[in-house]
Amino acid sequence: MFYPLPLFVGLRYTRAKRRNHFISFISLISMIGITLGVVVLITVLSVMNGFHKEVRERILGMASHGDIRPVEGAMTDWKTALEKAKENPEVVGAAPFVEAQAMLTVGKQVSGALIRGIFPELEQKVVEVGDKMKVGRLDDLQPGSFNIILGAELAHALGVWVGDKVTVLVPQLNVTPVGAMPRLKRFTVSGIFEVGMGEYDRGVAMVHAKDAARLLRLGDAVTGVRIKLKDLFLARQISYQLAGEFGGLYRVLNWTDYHRNFFAALQTEKRMMGLLLFFIVVIAAFNIVATLVMVVIDKQSDIAILKTFGASPGQIMQTFIVQGAFIGLVGTLIGLVLGVLLALNVESAVGLIESWFGVQFIDPSIYYISKLPSDLQWPDVALIGAGSFLWSLLMTLYPAWRAYRVQPAEALRYE
To answer: Where are the domains of the chain?
Structure first.
């Protein structure tokens, strides 16, 4: 016996004997329950992370990591602001833009949209919309061509395709001899994009920045400067730094400001889903209490003999803690291995089930994706593993306390 007494006896009690097969069966059920709980937790959270990543990438396909805007009015000295922003080592791209709300009309079809004026050669350094083009290219937007690129849903709502004409009305007036008239201009549809987010596919149209500035009478001014960062999760910190460097001349917003409530809702959903699913582990761990209580009752005479031979009450407690911890540890480790394997291969597993049963779990016409995304994050795995084991360990305290209170004289009275 080279092991400490509690470890040696606790591990020995985990082995099945003829008279306690039922106890061993309950221990096995507890272990399986913990394993299944951990597997489900890791898989579901990985799938939720995958969906969140898909949504984030689609949003950032049109929305930059940060925007530099003047406190009021248009930005006339935008070149200085652009160069100053690019001096920050975390900024990998910057592009000016012109933005305004407008009304698009084609015959009797009318739809509101956000007109975004861009410089195509700079815009591709900031967002990924160039990779989302269904028809045409960003380079088709040339100054003076008055070409326009529409979101796929917006083009469908207006009933137009490449080569068709679209009239753009902006909330500014022209004073003419017959009275005030809204400013409008006919544009030619030169491309259609689809990023998979209705907010952009239905509500955004892109033109060249100089055409937009001419329509809005901005001259050489722009609405602001968009920036892209090395790490999008540092957007808030970098925006504060840039705002301080500009000395209050410009406001610096980041992508979390525009979608704060949405991403907060996603994070809350993930926390609540994780908490609810963790109850699977909690319920399975309660079986450890039942298992150990039955073991304590079954081993009262053994406990009494151990105490008679000098085992301390602390060692008796540790013996049953070891037994329960072993069940929790094995169940957790198996669950972690199976959960990680399933999370890494969930797309293939779902595809296999779909082919077997001839069903489709995700309709691409509704969700814009055809496969189940999964993004395994190791901090989640570590947190689930630690939580599962610690809860299992907590469940051993009451049975161990029961063993601690066993009186040798009472236990051996009828032996």
So the answer is: 5-57+262-411, 65-254
Burial class (CB in 10 A: 0-12, 13-18, 19+), 177: exposed
For residue 249 the two structure tokens come to 């001349």
Q: 276-300 pLDDT, tens per residue? A: 888 888 888 888 887 778 777 777 7
Query: Which long-range contacts (C-beta less than 8 Å, at least 24 apart) are formed by 344-350?
Result: 344/374, 344/376, 346/43, 346/46, 346/47, 346/372, 346/374, 347/371, 347/372, 347/373, 347/374
d(CA 373, CA 385): 22
CA gap 69, 86 in Å, rounded: 15
What average pLDDT does the chain have?
83
Distant-in-sequence, close-in-space partners of 40: CB < 8 Å, separation ≥ 6: 277, 280, 339
**Spans of the chain below 70 pLDDT:** 1-3, 5-23, 173-181, 361-370, 408-415
Pairing of strands 204-208, 109-118: parallel
Q: Extract the tokens encoding 292.
A: 């150990």
Number of Cβ within a 10 Å radius of residue 192: 22
